[in-house]
Design brief:
Two copies of one chain form a homodimer. Chain A is α+β, with helices and mostly antiparallel strands. Chain A has nine helices and ten strands. In chain A, the strands form three sheets. A four-stranded antiparallel β-sheet of chain A has the order 2-6-4-5. A three-stranded antiparallel β-sheet of chain A has the order 1-7-3. In chain A, helix 3 crosses helix 4. The interface between A and B is large, with 44 and 44 residues. The structure holds a DNA duplex.
Chain lengths: ~250, ~250
DNA sequence: CGCCTATTTGACGCAAGTCAAGGGAGGTGG
DNA sequence: CCACCTCCCTTGACTTGCGTCAAATAGGCG
């Protein structure tokens, strides 16, 4: 009973590795449980001990964490093909929560099935491990961003990353990117207040760096944005195949 | 030619896994090249394509990253037994630099030897993978710390983590912890200016939360510090064995 | 049309940055 | 053994980026 839903994951893996038919079939026949989510739905919470991983099929999800006095930091976003809580395979208590930031579809796969897949196809295991390392690299860049860059560059950098990662996931809608982020959420991701995000966003709009209307992100001048962001691809660890997708 | 130098790594792995004699011997006979470093020495830099990993044997090292205009963010510290650039096994270009923050000894192991070790002893491979996930968890907590906590709590949190991780590595010198951090370095780790670190550090000293003299960190009142830090262990993913070390 | 949520705007305050200068402490060389 | 140099810590005065509070629009949706 091969599933068409798993396609985004296969697409993502293909960016790193040329899959054999056998491997692809094994992926396609992973037993999954689908869930449709609306904006704001929680997928897993801090302290959970999941027995399954979650694969993003469509929409945007975020990993987040709260301080004791209720301030939220959004740690990373995930798009179609990403597996946000792959770590739960090795760390049994979750240190983070994951929620949907837009309407989203996710697929749940029991750990045992992933482990069995690894055992049969170590190359797939390696790619998944690799993807956790790329996520860690993204975290590091965000930390640099939040710790050292002023609000303007910080936001620009955030948008640069989103654009590239959405392009990779095939979510480019003719130069518009359907993130459905509120300014409050952007603030939680950047360590800024919603009010300040608003001020900076208006400024960036005037400068023709980004447009953000009705949840769609538009970049009128990529080079200007990249410049403002002090942006360097390297941390995304793109393969040759992925680079050509991004450049297109 | 079994090496005594690798002990800290074995110690760390033992915190997670009871090693068989065979496994331990394989670890002890890993071919390594030792290097003695002085404070400030660079181990690897952004853009490198290493063919080896680096194991911290003694001292403190840090992973860091610079913005285009020369501001440094320290991303994570590493102590005896840690393997800071394990990621280089799967990602061939480094997105970060690593340097010594004190006099330090590190051991270099060629990738191929680590891969061979994995192949023979998958359990060791799993523990090493796990350790990259714990590092990622630490990064996430730092991001929350930098993004959402005010300077006072931020610093307190930083010290809490250092104490626990140094205890785990067996570096507790009767309640004093030999970090050799300058206030500038602490600032680079916390996204604060050195001047502000100084002001907050003095305040914390007056409150009896931490003492930091001649590179030795002393915690007069652990509970008070923990309280001030909004600190929760969970993100360190300690095993039962490790918890009992920390509580001691 | 009316409600709810998100964006926008303004006024104000503060945490933290910047600049600059002085004082220690450790290391080095004459 | 002293003189000097170099970091680092400390302090003060001043500035500013960003947060907070509060209220006024503007959109989307039932």
């Amino acid at each position: 009973m091969a599933s068409v839903h798993i396609r985004p994951l296969i697409h993502k893996i293909r960016g790193v590795l040329a899959l054999t038919n056998e491997e692809e079939e094994a992926l396609a026949s992973l037993p999954i449980r689908l869930a449709d989510l609306t904006k704001g739905d929680t997928i897993v919470r801090e302290g959970d001990r999941p027995t399954q991983c979650c694969i993003v099929i469509g929409g945007v999800t975020c990993m987040y964490k709260y301080t004791g006095d209720g301030k939220r930091q959004i740690l990373i976003l995930h798009f179609a093909g990403d597996v946000p809580d792959l770590q739960s395979l090795h760390l049994n208590v979750l240190d983070i929560g994951i929620a949907a930031l837009s309407r989203a579809t996710v697929a749940f796969v029991q750990h045992e099935h992933i482990r069995r897949l690894y055992a049969r196809f170590p190359r797939i295991g390696d790619v998944l491990w690799r993807s956790t390392l790329v996520d860690a690299s993204i975290l590091r860049e965000w930390m640099l961003n939040i710790g050292q860059r002023p609000a303007h560059a910080r936001m620009a950098h955030f948008f640069c990353e989103i654009v590239i990662r959405m392009k990779l996931a095939g979510l480019d809608d003719n130069g518009a990117y359907p993130v459905y982020l509120t300014q409050r959420e952007i603030g939680d991701a950047l360590g800024l207040s919603n009010v300040h995000v608003n001020r900076v966003a208006l400024e960036m709009r005037e400068q023709g760096l980004v447009g953000l209307t009705r949840g769609k992100l538009v970049i009128p001048d990529w080079n200007a944005l990249k410049e403002a962001a002090d942006f360097d691809f390297a941390y995304l660890h793109l393969t040759q195949a992925q680079k050509s997708v991004v450049d297109a």
